[in-house]
TrEMBL record:
This is ATP-binding protein. It comes from Streptomyces phaeochromogenes. One of its GO terms (molecular function) is ATP binding. The keyword Kinase does not apply. Residues 89-248 form the AAA+ ATPase domain. The keyword rRNA processing does not apply. Residues 338-350 have a biased composition (Basic residues).
Amino acid sequence: MTEELPGDIGNPYSTLTTKEGWRAFVDEHPEPPAPLAPGAVLDAEELDSYQEARKDYHSSSVIVATPTIRKVVTTGRKRIVLNRHQVSARRGLIVSGSSGTGKTTAITQLGKNVEQLARRRNPAATAQLPVVFVTVPPAATPKMLAGEFARFLGLPLLHRMSQVQITNAVCDLLAQLGTTLVLVDEIHNLDLTTRYGAEASDQLKYLSERMAATFVLAGLDIETSSLFQGTRGQQIAGRYSVIPSRPFGRRNRGDREQWQALIVTLEESLRLHRHQPGTLLALDAYLHERTGGLIGSLSQLIREAAVEAIDSGAEKITKRTLDTVELDHTAEQARPKPASKRLGKKPKAA
C-alpha cells in the first residue's frame, strides 16, 4: 500500500504549518478599530462595516504574557544560544500540559520573538527562515513526519520519493535558510509503544541531529505519556527539559493576582461602548469557576460575550451575558450545577 503524503493545503496563509502562514503570523499586529468621533452618524453600510471590524477584532485572541509564555520564551532563547556551537546532542525544550493551558500559544510566541529578533539583526537577509513550525499528524510514520517539514517549506512531494530523499531535501534546504528554531506541536501523537510511533520518534531525533537548530516540542501531558519510556524515551528525557503548562489557580494570593492580571488585560482589550472597566475583574471568582482556570476557555468566554454584546446592542459584558456562552465540554462539565439540580429538585416556576 502506498503511503499518502500531505497534498493540497488550500490557502497557505490560513495555517501556521506553511512558511507563508507562519510569516503572516509573525507579521500580524492586530489593531483595534478606531473609536467613533463624538456625535458621529453612520449610514447603514458604514455601521455594518464598523460593527464587523469590531467583531473581527474581538475574534482574534489577545496574547497575554503569562508566566508560562515568559518562561518558554526566556528558556527557549537561552537554549538557542547554548546550542550555537553544538555539533550533536543539542538541548531542547518540551512544553507539557492539559488542553487549553496555552502550550501552542507559548511555543508560537517564542517562535515569533525569535524570528522578529532575527529580522531586526539582519533586515537584508530576506531569504532567511529562522523558525519552522510543524505538527505531528495522528499515527505518524517517519515519512509522514518528514513530509510535514517539506509541506511547511513548500517542497514538491512525489509519491515515489523515499523517506530518505524527503529528509535530505528538507535538511539541505533548512541549512541554506539558516533555521535556528524548530517548533513541533502535538508531540503526544508519537506513541512509542507502537512500531510507527517509535520509528517516527527516531526520525525526529535524526532530524534534530541533522539540523543545526534547537527543537522545542509541545504536547498533552507528556510526563505521563510513552514519550519518556524505554531506551528511546531515556534519550529524549536526557536532552529535553520540561516546562509544565497548568491552569491558573486561586488558592493563594500570588495565584489570585496572576489570574486577576490576566482578566484585567483581557478586559482592557475590549472595544465596547458601554462596558464599565472593572466589571470582569469583580467577577474573577465566577470566571475561574466557569473556566477552571484555563486561559483558552477564558479567552473564548470573553471574546464570544463581546461579539454578543455588539450583536445585541448592549455594548457591555455582564454576568448574564457570560452565562449564555457555551464553553468547551471540559469547562462545561466542571461548571457547578445550580443547587436545585445538585439536590435533584425541580426549579421553582417563575
